[in-house]
Amino acid sequence: PGHLRNCLRYLKHNKYTFLSIEVAIDILVNQRELPEKPIVFTMDDGFIEQGEVAAAIFPEFECPLTFFVITGLLDQTLWPWDAKVSWIIDNHNKKQSITLRLDDETILITAEDLKQRKAVREKIRNIIKEVDAESIPNILKQFSESAGVEIPEKPPGQYQPMSWENARSLEKKGIRFAPHSVSHRILSKLPREESVNEILESWNSLKKNLENPLKVFCYPTGRALDFGPREIEILK
Question: 3-state class of 109 per DSSP?
Answer without folding.
Answer: strand
